[in-house]
Write a structure and sequence with these properties.
Blueprint lengths: L10 H9 L20 H9 L9 E5 L4 H14 L4 E4 L11 E3 L2 E2 L2 H15 L12 H15 L4 E5 L16 E4 L7 H4 L3 H8 L9 E3 L4 H14 L3 E3 L5 E4 L6 E5 L4 E6 L5 H19 L6 H10 L7 E4 L3 E4 L5 H14 L5 E5 L7 H8 L5 E4 L10 H11 L3 E3 L3 H11 L5 E5 L2 H27 L1
Parallel strand pairs: 1-5, 1-6, 2-5, 6-7, 7-8, 13-17, 14-15, 14-17, 15-16
Antiparallel strand pairs: 2-3, 3-4, 9-10, 10-11, 12-13
Length: about 450
């Protein structure tokens, strides 16, 4: 390996190095639209690293909403079936290590640091190549492929980043492809109509590889069906070949009639009807894996769905008052959040802590929240993409929403807990950045309580 002047010796230095690459995740909206995006640079990087992805058995999932939750469910099902499973997702909420997991364990700091240092010998020479150095997300994907190959995972579940057709993950030929709900988002980069966005997402469909899709708007459904037919790919749809049915037991359970089996009275700890749709997609993907030779059984499907964990999606941080976090960050996901709150927590007074990214349609999200909230605390997550709370306040004022401002998410939570009653519901939402800040607050609170208990024990 080539030696460079500055070595990566710590986890912080490793993450700083990656974030020093071109990062379209954190860039303002529209920046990626004009950039040089193709798969040549990713293929070049992989070839220089020995093509670690070549031997991986993969599940590949794209979509606008729910692809991370669906990927987590598929990984949980495969683990329940006894497989060693790699999971690659984005973005992360607290630590970069969340993006790369094996059997639900985050990549260790030491292994991550050593791998970044090693792969600098791949990345640095590419700066003078025709395509340039990998972007941040391409480097993340390269890291994941290398880690999964070296750890000999038996199945890798891959979530795309922003799009699909030109996504860095779209260098694999998977066992099965999944498409979750497609909606208007990232229009500057992916297109300003549902047809254009669906075409980008459906770009991960490979010839002859089965595809499982969530219920879609008619325009998106037509695009997916057309691409699948063009590639000769079997196409299984939730709502047609796969059916989502009410449970016979309780309001929190559901039944899925798959192509191979019927799964009665399933429980999923991820709340909301949208998560049940994601579960139906995951089950469709699992059945395709079974047909591809993976040892997926109905018992593994049931256990995987019941045991899935996916932080930041209607996650409870505190009981009284109820403190929830949810990563809803566009009108479609806000609608799903409100429907889930109506279903699972009916009649509870709501206080929303809101931190939106400025490129999102936050005025529309405020309009959706206005009739349902008792009060809002308007804040900004710790990101350069955050909308200024003063702008949120002007819109809230126009909508007649009672509101106050807070300098950051932690301060907003402290204010809400001070003024909320024991039966109130507090929900942090608006962006995954805001959710990440709330989870960091919760981790500090847990640590402080532990320290306090330890100190008392020593007196």
């Amino acid at each position: 390996m080539v030696s460079y002047t500055v070595c990566v010796k710590s986890f912080r230095e490793a993450t700083d190095y990656l974030f020093g690459l071109v990062d379209y995740e954190r860039a303002p909206a529209g920046v990626a639209a004009g950039c040089y995006l193709n798969l040549d640079r990713m293929r070049d990087a992989l070839a220089r690293a020995g093509n670690p992805h070549a031997g991986l058995r993969c599940v590949h999932i794209a979509g606008t909403k729910g692809k991370g939750s669906t990927a987590a469910m598929v990984a949980a099902i495969a683990r329940a079936a006894g497989r060693r499973v790699g999971l690659f997702t984005s973005p992360h909420l607290i630590t970069f290590r969340e993006r790369i997991r094996i059997d639900d364990a985050l990549i260790p700091e030491a292994a991550f640091t050593a791998l970044v240092e090693e792969l600098r010998a791949v990345i640095e020479p590419m700066r003078t190549s025709a395509d340039g150095a990998p972007t941040f997300f391409e480097a993340c994907t390269l890291l994941a492929f290398c880690w999964f190959a070296r750890q000999q995972v038996e199945l890798a579940v891959l979530e795309t980043g922003m799009g699909g057709r030109l996504d860095a993950t779209n260098v694999v030929t998977p066992l099965v492809t999944g498409l979750t709900t497609i909606a208007l988002d990232h229009q500057t980069e992916l297109g300003d109509t549902l047809v254009l966005i669906a075409a980008e997402k459906a770009g991960i469909i490979k010839p002859g590889v089965p595809v499982v899709s969530a219920p879609q708007e008619p325009d998106a459904a037509e695009v997916i069906a057309c691409v699948a037919a063009t590639h000769g790919s079997p196409h299984y749809r939730v709502g047609a070949e796969i059916r989502l049915l009410p449970a016979t037991s309780g309001a929190w359970d559901f039944t899925v009639a798959g192509r191979l089996d019927r799964y009665v009275d399933l429980f999923c700890p991820l709340l909301g009807a949208h998560q049940q749709r994601n579960a139906a997609v995951a089950i469709g993907l699992a059945e395709c894996l079974r047909e591809a030779g993976e040892p997926i059984t109905p018992a593994a499907i049931r256990a995987g769905i019941a045991g899935v964990t996916w932080p930041g999606r209607l996650q409870t941080l505190r009981e009284r008052p109820l403190l929830l976090v949810d990563g809803a960050h566009d009108p479609a996901s806000i609608a799903a959040l409100l429907a889930a709150l109506d279903r699972h927590y009916p009649g509870r007074p709501r206080i929303f802590i809101l931190g939106f990214s400025r490129e999102k349609d936050w005025p529309q999200m405020l309009r959706q929240l206005a009739p349902t909230t008792r009060a809002c605390l308007l804040t900004a997550a710790a990101t350069s993409r955050a909308t200024a709370p003063s702008l949120l306040a002007a819109e809230a004022q126009a909508l007649g929403i009672p509101h106050t401002l807070a300098p950051d998410v932690a301060a907003a939570i402290a204010q809400a807990l001070t003024h909320a009653g024991p039966d109130d519901l507090i929900c942090v939402t608006g962006s995954l950045y805001a959710v990440g800040d709330a989870l960091k607050w919760a981790a500090r609170e847990t640590s402080d309580r532990a320290d306090s208990t330890s100190s008392k024990g020593q007196l």
